[in-house]
């Protein structure tokens, strides 16, 4: 995944289903483009198998929100001395967006001080601010030249400047995925018996929005914010976010069947977004999340310092994050936010408990979950369904498991949730999990975590 500090585009990564009439070849191509450095940030829409047609994943334009009411407190002549050797993070990557940057401030500061520093820097370097960040990170996004960005990176008030990057979504009886999560061994028993409904938990789906009118959501879905700026106002026009939300908390397709679903739309109708749009969504969650809370990020790109910093700050605020490992079939440590150690990073398995061929792997992965041919909510009608594959589909299984745990332990901190969930996972069931990967498969059955197999 591309560093979110740079305004890169994020996209959903879908895995086409063999024999499907859906034109998914473009998604596979896009998935193969994810490199360890400077990737497009995409919603790790797992290789998604879908029963509806979707267009090629496109790059979302950065949203331009002007910051108003800022008070200038320093002139260019009063600026602190410059740092030596400052560089732009993510510059020159394949997914970098020309002329668009995210500036992250050094140190901590109040909202008022953040606004003042933003205005001072904007005045000093003659740039127009697009969006202010004050919760998950302290800083702003702006359009500027490479020369302006380099000079700003050298300012002692600035921790770093990252070029905006493209980001995308990850997609590669009860649904088989649900069935697999509540039993230790195969074969599947055609039952899913959750330990709770999680009606006291709030789930934040940072994705392509939501089709709130779908029957499977039972009136529990709403829109929190939309940072894309294309007039959709949180409505899912791609299907990835609704599918993910259905797996987390749908009445039929979900693990946490009573949880409240809040859509945080950061990806456009093609499943693409930017560092700016995604960090904007995380910033909103950090400021507004009602605990107990879990956030799902089935998206990613190349390594992105701004994105990782935003996720870490949000976790530090008390929100537990489940993030997709990615669909490159490579080391998950080369993607953001999969490389964020405080998040729970999820790889994908098939219905035979083998690691999905597209799933990323490695020491940055914490646990595996079902991610191939997953049936969930569709967006063409209130009762529509869709099948998708990818680490984007595995991640919401884990997010649903987190919601179930938080239902019984509402005061648990994210680190405690991660320890409990990974500790309860079934060991040594994943066939060929990949180099340095933990052999842990999600388990949410009615068993005390202390009794879990290790």
Automatic annotation (TrEMBL):
InterPro entries: PCSK9_ProteinaseK-like, Peptidase_S8/S53_dom, Peptidase_S8/S53_dom_sf, Peptidase_S8_Asp-AS, Peptidase_S8_His-AS, Peptidase_S8_Ser-AS, Peptidase_S8_subtilisin-like, Peptidase_S8_subtilisin-rel. Residues 100-168 form the Inhibitor I9 domain. Signal peptide: none annotated. PROSITE patterns: SUBTILASE (PS51892), SUBTILASE_ASP (PS00136), SUBTILASE_HIS (PS00137), SUBTILASE_SER (PS00138). GO terms for molecular function: serine-type endopeptidase activity. The keyword Lipid metabolism does not apply. Belongs to the peptidase S8 family. This is S8 family peptidase. It comes from Kribbella qitaiheensis.
């Amino acid at each position: 995944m591309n560093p979110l500090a740079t305004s890169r585009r994020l996209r959903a990564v879908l895995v086409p289903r063999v024999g499907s009439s859906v034109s998914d070849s473009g998604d596979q191509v896009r998935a193969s483009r994810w490199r360890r450095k400077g990737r497009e940030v995409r919603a790790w829409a797992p290789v998604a198998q879908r029963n509806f047609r979707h267009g090629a994943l496109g790059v979302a334009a950065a949203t331009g929100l002007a910051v108003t009411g800022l008070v200038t407190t320093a002139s260019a002549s009063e600026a602190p001395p410059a740092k030596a050797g400052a560089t732009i993070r993510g510059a020159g990557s394949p997914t970098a967006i020309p002329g668009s940057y995210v500036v992250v401030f050094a140190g901590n500061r109040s909202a008022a001080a953040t606004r003042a520093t933003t205005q001072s820097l904007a005045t000093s370097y003659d740039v127009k601010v697009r969006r202010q960040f004050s919760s998950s990170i302290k800083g702003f996004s702006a359009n500027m030249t490479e020369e302006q960005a380099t000079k700003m990176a050298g300012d002692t008030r600035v921790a770093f400047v990252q070029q905006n990057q493209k980001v995308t979504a990850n997609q590669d009886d009860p649904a088989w995925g649900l069935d697999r999560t509540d039993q230790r061994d195969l074969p599947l028993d055609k039952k899913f018996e959750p330990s709770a409904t999680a009606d006291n938990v709030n789930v934040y789906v940072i994705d392509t929005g939501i089709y709130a009118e779908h029957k499977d959501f039972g009136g529990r879905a709403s829109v929190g914010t939309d940072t894309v700026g294309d007039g959709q106002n949180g409505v899912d026009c791609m299907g990835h976010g609704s599918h993910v939300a259905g797996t987390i908390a749908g009445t039929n397709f979900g693990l946490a069947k009573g949880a409240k679903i809040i859509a945080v739309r950061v990806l456009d109708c093609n499943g693409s977004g930017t560092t700016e749009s995604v960090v904007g969504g995380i910033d909103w969650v950090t400021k507004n999340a009602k605990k107990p809370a879990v956030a799902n990020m089935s998206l990613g790109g190349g390594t992105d310092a701004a994105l990782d910093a935003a996720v870490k700050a949000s976790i530090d605020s008390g929100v537990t994050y489940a993030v997709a490992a990615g669909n490159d079939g490579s080391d998950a440590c080369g993607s953001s936010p999969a490389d964020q150690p405080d998040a729970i990073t999820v790889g994908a398995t098939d219905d035979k408990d083998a690691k999905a061929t597209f799933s990323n792997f490695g020491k940055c992965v914490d646990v595996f979950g079902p991610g191939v041919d997953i049936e969930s909510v569709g967006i063409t009608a209130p009762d529509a369904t869709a099948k998708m594959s990818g680490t984007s589909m595995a991640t919401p299984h884990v997010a649903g498991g987190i919601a179930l745990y938080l239902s019984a332990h509402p005061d648990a901190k994210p680190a405690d949730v991660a320890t409990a969930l990974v500790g309860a996972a079934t060991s040594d069931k994943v066939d060929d999990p990949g180099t340095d990967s933990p052999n842990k498969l999600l388990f949410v059955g009615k068993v005390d975590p202390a009794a879990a197999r290790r």
